[in-house]
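User: Run a structure prediction on this.
Assistant: Running it now.
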Amino acid sequence: MAEPVRLSKLMSERGLCSRREADSYIEKGLVFVDGKRVSELGTKVDPDSAIRLDTAASAQQQQRVTILLHKPVGYVSGQPEPGYQPAATLIRPETLWQDGRAGQAFHPTHLKGLAPAGRLDIDSTGLLVLTQDGRIAKQLIGDNSDVEKEYLVRVEGRLDERGLALLNHGLSLDGRRLRPARVGWQNADQLRFILKEGRKRQIRRMCELVGLKVMGLKRVRIGRVRLGDLPLGQWRYLRDDEAF
């Protein structure tokens, strides 16, 4: 018989919610395991158990918003740093893109628990996802995330065929091999990077290793969601018909 596992861990692994959300639902008695309500934190269950969320928990999840922001240079994506503002301060009614309302009006509760699902460096621009939904955060930045991120990178320097091959596969950062990437020329001075990981300042450091200097970096796609025409410094809600 399989070893019992923590219910919150199992719920997270199945993509039902984040572990923190799972603990909150369990504490409120909103989780059923094999038809029985569970309300004790730390409960361990059979890994093959049938798990169901109470309708109240499902309703809470549906109310959680995910926001797409076109981050400008000079804003940090996560925790504030001295002298710089977090990108979340741009989420205001007056910066909501009029063409991207998705039938949803801004409400101050949409800022509560809103967190970036992935980083975008202070000197980079482009698509930044902020979400209240632990399932989306796990999908985009979880250890097993397989979601592509696409970047347009303006560079200076000379890149030969060997250097381009290394950018695609063969480089290491901090003693760890990088996962295979897809890198090619977009035009004479711009490369297109498609990655499935997001180590700190990864693209800039990759370029340095092959003798290139990054002059500008813009993220244009995460999974199936594109930056599109979203203006710089503005944001919109992820629509019901969109998924990463």
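Residues 19-27 form the longest helix (9 residues).
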